[in-house]
Design goal:
The chain has four helices and seven strands, in the order αββαβαββαββ. Helix content is 32%, strand content 25%. The chain has 142 residues and is of the alpha+beta class. The termini are close together. It has helices spanning 9-17, 37-45, 66-82, 112-121; strands at 19-22, 28-30, 51-54, 86-93, 102-108, 126-130, 137-140. A hairpin with a 5-residue loop joins β1 (19-22) and β2. The chain has one domain (9-140). Strands 2-1-4-5-3-6-7 form a seven-stranded antiparallel β-sheet, sandwiched between helices.
Length: 142
C-alpha cells in the first residue's frame, strides 16, 4: 500500500493511527483494521452492509482555514442530502500529533466506488471505508 502512493509515508502512517469518532445516538470510535461491533449494529439498523467515514476538510492534507473547511464540509453535507444518504457527524483526530481534528461524516450505505468518487471530488488523499465485516480500512485515493 505504501509504495504505490503519492502520499508521503508519514502522512499515511498518521491516517492509520487516527481515531475516527462517530457522534450521534450510537457513538463509537473507528480504528483502521479493527472490527467495530457498534458499526456492525449501525449497518444493521440502517439495512446496509457498508459505510464510509469521509471529510472535505484540509484537501490533500494541507491545513486550511476554519472558514474554508466549514464551507467545504457544508458542501459535502448538501451533496450527501441531495443523494438521499444517511450520515452521522464525526471527527477524525490523531491521538498524539498536533494536526487539528477534522469534522467528518460517517455515511451509511455508501458503496466503495461512490465513496472514492466523493473523496476525490473533495480533494482527499484517502477515505475510511467499511464493508459487511464492519472493519474500517484505509483507502488511498492517490
Amino acid at each position: 500500500m505504501l509504495t504505490d502512493s503519492d502520499i508521503p509515508r508519514e502522512t499515511i502512517q498518521a491516517y492509520l493511527e487516527t481515531c475516527y469518532r462517530v457522534h450521534g445516538d450510537t457513538p463509537t470510535t473507528l480504528k483502521i483494521g479493527e472490527t467495530s461491533p457498534t458499526l456492525a449494529t449501525l449497518h444493521k439498523a440502517h439495512h446496509t452492509d457498508c459505510s464510509a467515514f469521509i471529510t472535505a476538510c484540509n484537501p490533500f492534507s494541507q491545513n486550511a482555514s476554519d472558514e474554508f473547511n466549514a464551507a467545504k464540509q457544508q458542501a459535502l453535507a448538501n451533496e450527501l442530502k441531495e443523494l438521499g444518504l444517511t450520515f452521522v457527524d464525526g471527527i477524525g483526530q490523531h491521538p498524539s500529533n498536533s494536526w487539528p481534528g477534522e469534522t467528518s461524516f460517517l455515511v451509511l450505505g455508501l458503496a466503495l466506488e461512490a465513496a472514492k468518487t466523493l473523496g476525490t471530488r473533495y480533494g482527499q488523499n484517502a477515505i475510511v471505508w467499511s464493508g459487511a465485516d464492519a472493519k474500517p480500512q484505509l483507502v488511498l485515493l492517490r
